[in-house]
């Protein structure tokens, strides 16, 4: 089919053909209609690399896939805070997909990192919806620039793996809108993805695949989405209810049963053919817009490998660097410990697992550079220490000029399909780090993990480099940063608490197999830690560099419905580098629960040593708004706000207070429940007070130091207790509301 699908084309389809088009075929394909020359299209997993199965497709994707470059996982790429880098990543993924005949790439995953125990955190960007939305939009733009569509997932509030097919994510409307839907909204409105993938779970008791309000009212009517809503694999419990709710494509389909149940539903009046036609038209439009040649052709995988190396190195987070132990002066003098140097964990498990093009291990790269001092020290697939291995490793470390320990979370403990039970590294690794640090003051720890971990040894080691899951170029990228060939510039897109019990979901996460109750509401990640003034191991947005940056000369200009910030950023350190500026807004205007501050923009800037640049950023009305569930709208309140610019959520280098008056003046009605303090604060109500002879009495009481605060915190109806009669109140209310 080459023409845009028309109603006439749909009319040519039989009911059976229509029914077949709204269900997947052969696990990864849409249906075709041979008599009308309608070809099928293929989709496949690919958040961090193409996972096209070579043959013998199966629903779980357990069979071998074609070789493809394994890029860093989203937990790491988010730490780049680099929109341009994510666009380039998307372009590379789109190129690979197109070369392999894949029309729809199933990614990115943008769910919020609500708990450090969520098993799929490695596949998601951040605890903050702005970061997830901005980087997700850049990724989508990159993929779709190559004429390959995406499926943004998992819509929505899919924040745990245990019982993910049936559990209900229960939360307030405000939390849903401000935290869990905001990233999807940003991507839909900015990047216009081809498809959205509906998640397994329910929200407030309604399965997402059957949630009309989610899939139609919000996604389409409010946000203007015009693509296909497909299900996650096996997420549809009731196909007819799902179609009525706005789900267009059931994946992977149930074979003939999927077609039969739709035909019978139409024939029995349980599903109108008009509703079916809407889904059919959307699927046909997707096939038309995103069909690619299914014949595979070659593409430059070596070029993609080098990009993966660059992306990883520019995303790594330097968490600690006492006495500038990094960068290392001489790689050959370093003792390397830890089996993860030899067998690195470089990608996630489950549906994101890629058959890597070419893996370079940290050990192989070091050996190629002439370093042969290595001991495994522990076994990745074990948790208990081997006394002999441990003793040998500590003895070697004691004699070494410097030690680099590779540590992390084994894939067996962190993958799609189940949640973690601990933030701790295996005991054998923690023991190794502690004992080595006790005998060598130049101990560097390189971490390979999918999400935040506890670090009981953090104060004892000299340096810590967080590499998350770095992709197939993990070996080259790691040493690029450790040796100073690349200056680290990543920052944490999630908070690292000291211990699991510090997290706001502690004690409630996975408490019930049926429901997940979001007691913390909007206070996720740094929003919680900052509100409670709770110390963290490493705050959101934190990351060190081999150089130093100076923020100065902030100016803030308030205009009609926008605020413009300008500030100077200087690299006054010894080497070239990149700095991620973060812009936060503190809301002092709204009389509701609000975070102490929220990230509202970020920008990554490259600066040569000694160079200064002027950074200009614009904040809009939405950046000063909160979601009012009562009015079902985003509300911006006139009043005072603080704009801060800095290096992390806990290091704000520049701040300025502003006052916004962007709303038309609509005075609230005066009622018997209006507080006396609010009435006395309004000069326009003074004539009504005097005319009703209430002014003298209220002035005496509110100006009396003994009774002032008490009276101000009483409603008007309580004035009867101090000698004002009901007729005076009635007349005052009449006069006061004539002023409105």
TrEMBL record:
InterPro entries: Cellulose_deg_GH3 (IPR050288), Fn3-like (IPR026891), GH (IPR017853), Glyco_hydro_3_AS (IPR019800), Glyco_hydro_3_C (IPR002772), Glyco_hydro_3_C_sf (IPR036881), Glyco_hydro_3_N (IPR001764), Glyco_hydro_3_N_sf (IPR036962)
Keyword Hydrolase attached: yes
Alphabetical GO biological process terms: carbohydrate metabolic process
GO molecular-function term, one example from the UniProt record: hydrolase activity, hydrolyzing O-glycosyl compounds
Domain Fibronectin type III-like, chain residue ranges per copy: 579-649
Keyword Membrane: no
PANTHER family: BETA-GLUCOSIDASE
Family membership: Belongs to the glycosyl hydrolase 3 family.
Protein's name in the database: Glycosyl hydrolase family 3 protein
Organism encoding this protein: Levilactobacillus brevis ATCC 14869 = DSM 20054
């Amino acid at each position: 089919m080459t023409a845009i699908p028309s109603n006439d084309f749909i009319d040519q389809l039989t009911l059976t053909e229509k029914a077949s088009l709204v269900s997947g075929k052969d696990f990864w394909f849409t249906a075709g209609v041979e008599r009308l020359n309608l070809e099928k299209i293929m989709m496949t997993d690919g958040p961090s690399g193409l996972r096209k199965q070579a043959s013998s497709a199966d629903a779980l994707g357990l069979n071998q896939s074609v070789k493809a470059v394994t890029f860093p996982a989203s937990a790491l790429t988010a730490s780049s805070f680099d929109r341009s880098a994510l666009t380039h990543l998307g372009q590379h993924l789109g190129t690979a997909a197109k070369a392999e005949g894949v029309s729809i790439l199933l990614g990115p995953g943008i769910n919020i990192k609500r708990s450090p125990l969520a098993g799929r955190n490695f596949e998601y960007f951040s605890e903050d919806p702005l970061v997830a939305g901005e980087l997700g939009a850049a990724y989508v733009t990159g993929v779709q620039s190559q004429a390959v569509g995406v499926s943004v997932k998992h819509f929505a509030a899919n924040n745990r793996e245990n019982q993910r097919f049936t559990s209900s994510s229960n939360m307030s409307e405000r939390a849903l809108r401000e935290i869990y839907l905001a990233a999807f909204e940003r991507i839909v409105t900015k990047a216009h993805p081809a498809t959205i993938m509906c998640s397994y779970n329910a929200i407030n008791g309604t399965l997402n695949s059957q949630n009309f309000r989610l899939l139609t009212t919000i996604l389409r009517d409010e946000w203007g989405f015009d693509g296909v809503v497909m299900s996650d694999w096996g997420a549809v419990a009731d196909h007819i209810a799902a179609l009525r709710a706005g789900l267009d494509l059931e994946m992977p389909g149930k074979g003939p049963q999927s077609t039969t149940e739709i035909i019978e539903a139409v024939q029995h009046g349980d599903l109108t053919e008009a509703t079916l036609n809407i889904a059919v038209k959307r699927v046909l439009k997707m096939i038309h817009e995103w069909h690619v040649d299914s014949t595979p052709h070659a593409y430059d995988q070596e070029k993609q490998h080098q990009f993966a190396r660059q992306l990883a190195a520019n995303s790594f987070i330097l968490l600690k660097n006492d006495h500038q132990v990094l960068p290392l002066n001489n790689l050959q003098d370093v003792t390397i410990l830890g089996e993860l140097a030899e067998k690195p964990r470089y990608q996630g498990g489950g549906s994101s697992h890629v058959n890597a093009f070419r893996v370079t291990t940290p050990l192989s790269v070091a050996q190629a550079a002439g370093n042969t001092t290595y001991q495994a020290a522990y076994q990745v697939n074990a948790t208990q220490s081997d006394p002999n291995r441990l003793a040998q490793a500590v003895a070697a470390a004691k004699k070494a000029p410097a030690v680099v320990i590779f540590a992390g979370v084994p894939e067996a403990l962190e993958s799609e399909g189940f949640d973690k039970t601990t933030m701790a590294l295996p005991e054998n690794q923690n023991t190794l780090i502690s004992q080595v640090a006790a005998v060598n003051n130049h101990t560097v720890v390189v971490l390979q993990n999918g999400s935040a971990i506890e670090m009981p040894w953090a104060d004892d080691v000299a340096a810590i480099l967080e590499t998350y899951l770095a992709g197939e170029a993990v070996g080259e990228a790691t040493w690029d940063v450790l040796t100073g060939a690349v200056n680290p510039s990543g920052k944490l897109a999630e908070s690292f608490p000291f211990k699991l019990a510090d997290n706001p979901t502690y004690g409630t996460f996975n408490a019930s197999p049926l429901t997940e109750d979001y007691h913390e509401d909007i206070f996720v990640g740094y929003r919680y830690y900052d509100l409670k003034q709770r110390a963290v191991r490493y705050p959101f947005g934190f990351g060190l560099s081999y150089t130093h940056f100076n923020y100065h000369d902030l100016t803030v200009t308030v205009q009609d419905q926008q605020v413009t910030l300008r500030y100077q950023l200087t690299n006054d350190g010894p080497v070239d580098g990149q700095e991620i500026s973060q812009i936060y807004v503190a809301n002092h205007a709204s009389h509701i629960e609000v975070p102490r501050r929220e990230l509202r923009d970020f920008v990554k800037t490259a600066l040569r040593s000694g160079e200064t640049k002027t950074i200009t950023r614009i904040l809009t009305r939405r950046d000063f708004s909160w979601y009012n569930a009562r009015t079902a709208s985003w509300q911006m309140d006139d009043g005072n706000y603080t704009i801060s610019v800095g290096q992390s959520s806990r290091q704000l280098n520049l701040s300025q207070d502003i006052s916004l008056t962007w709303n038309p003046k609509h005075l609230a009605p005066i009622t018997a429940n209006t507080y006396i303090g609010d009435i006395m604060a309004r000069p326009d109500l003074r004539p009504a007070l005097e005319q009703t002879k209430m002014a003298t009495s209220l002035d005496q009481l509110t100006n009396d130091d003994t009774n002032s605060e008490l009276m101000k915190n009483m409603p008007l109806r309580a004035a009867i207790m101090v000698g004002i009669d009901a007729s005076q109140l009635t007349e005052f209310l009449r006069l006061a509301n004539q002023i409105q």
